[in-house]
Specification:
- By secondary structure, this protein is an alpha/beta fold.
- The chain is built from 8 helices and 10 strands.
- The strands form 2 sheets. Strands 1-10-9-6-2-3-5 form a 7-stranded parallel sheet.
- The chain binds fructose -6-phosphate.
């Protein structure tokens, strides 16, 4: 078993700063590197920190490439709840990365298999993901890889569970507007990244942090597969870490 590096911070702001250090170091070593990005609430302090660091001249995103984990099926890139729009508003529009060097699965694609294959191919053509950012769902999902009986390998379409739709309904006017399907990198796509950083904050994530990193590796907890990756850093706050060893 590989050893996950664990850093416990006092609060989400410090989680953002420590995670930003990993991106700053990667881009200093590899200015045209490929970063894997996630949406959700947990990465927001990190994204604010990355924007501030580029403004302060500590990071240069102008040659960086980015690939996002996932997108809702049926949402246009400019839909207020699309993950493309989330990324533009919370990070990409505020740094010097070139739009053409950023990819998010196409929520409106007609040929799902072709889009998913092209997504994998683009990442490969860029040389693979150097540093993949992940958050975790309350059910242990990474990207939109929900608990099931296997670890999905590649980018694919998924049906969303009621738990995930319910957790995400806060961003929509009603639960009926939350899409029922999405496109996501597979667990295999994620595991192919050279380095992975997972950020977890809040007491409500304490049980799943414990299950994912200190329980058995099982597709019923998709994030547990990270225990088999050679270079994972878990950066969490004290609240999220509070169930470990208890
Ligand atoms: C987002 C994603 C999801 C989130 C997870 C946690 O692109 O793939 O797996 O990382 O749902 O979301 P938050 O951070 O909002 O709790």
């Amino acid at each position: 078993m590989y050893h996950v590096k664990v850093k416990v911070c006092k609060d989400p702001a410090e989680v953002g700063k420590l995670a930003a250090d990993l991106f700053e170091n990667l881009i200093a070593e590899k200015p045209a590197g490929v970063i894997g990005l996630a949406t959700g609430s947990t990465p927001l302090p990190l994204y604010r920190e990355l924007i501030a660091r580029e403004k302060a001249g500590k990071i240069d995103f102008s040659r960086v490439h980015s690939a996002n984990l996932d997108e809702y099926k049926g949402l246009a890139p400019d839909h207020p709840q699309s993950y493309r729009r989330f990324m533009q508003e919370n990070l990409l529009d505020h740094i010097s990365i070139k739009y053409e060097n950023t990819i998010v699965p196409d929520g409106l694609c007609e040929d799902v298999d072709a889009m998913c294959e092209a997504y994998e191919r683009q990442i490969e053509e860029w040389g693979g993901v150097d540093l993949q950012l992940l958050g975790i769902g309350h059910d242990g999902h990474i990207g939109f890889n929900e608990p099931c009986d296997h670890f999905p390998a590649k980018t694919h379409e998924v049906e969303l569970t009621e738990m995930t739709r319910d957790a995400n309904k806060r961003f929509f006017d009603s639960i009926d507007e939350v899409p029922t399907a999405a496109f996501t990198m597979g667990c295999g796509t994620v595991m192919a990244a050279r380095k992975i950083v997972m950020v977890i904050t809040g007491k409500d994530k304490a049980d799943i942090l414990n299950a994912a990193f200190y329980g058995p590796v099982t597709p019923e907890v998709p994030a547990s597969i990270l225990q088999f990756h050679p270079d994972v850093t878990l950066i969490c706050d004290e609240a999220a870490y509070s169930k470990v060893g208890k």
